[in-house]
Structures are given as structure tokens and as C-alpha cells.
Amino acid sequence: MTILKKYFVFIISFVMINMVFQIVSGMILTASYIPDFSSMEGNLSQKVVFGSTSLTPLLLTLLTATLAYFLSQKKFSISKK
Predict the structure, then answer these.
(1) Which residues, including other chains, have CB under 8 Å from residue 73's CB and lie 6 or more apart?
(2) What is the pLDDT of residue 25?
(3) DSSP state of 35
């Protein structure tokens, strides 16, 4: 049961660290963005378009974290023997 508890603590902390990293990197990229107004000569649309979102990157990140967790647990259990 402790392995499952350790796993959930690992996944939750991994997701939180990943979210903080995503937010900070987004803030840095937004702050350093310089728009190129020369390419917008006659195309001044008032419509705002946002990109689509997908859960695939999050699921792949969680899968990778799960794999890393279980591989590290296996390595530590082998080295303890």
C-alpha cells in the first residue's frame, strides 16, 4: 500500500512542478514577445482566435512520469538487495 501512496505523492508533485514550469515559461515567452506589425499591412481583423487545446501532452507527460517512477523503484529495489 505504501508503494501506491508514494506513487500518488510523486505524480501530484510532478504535475504541480510541471504546471509551475508551464506558467513561468508562458510568462517569460509572453513578456519577451515582440509582434511584427510590418506583416499586418492590410489584414487588420478584429476577430480574436485562440488555438485549440488537447489533453495528449498532459497524458504523455503522466505516462512518462509513471514509467520513470516505476523504473526508479525497480532500480532502488534491486540495489537494496
Answers:
(1) 3, 6
(2) 92
(3) -
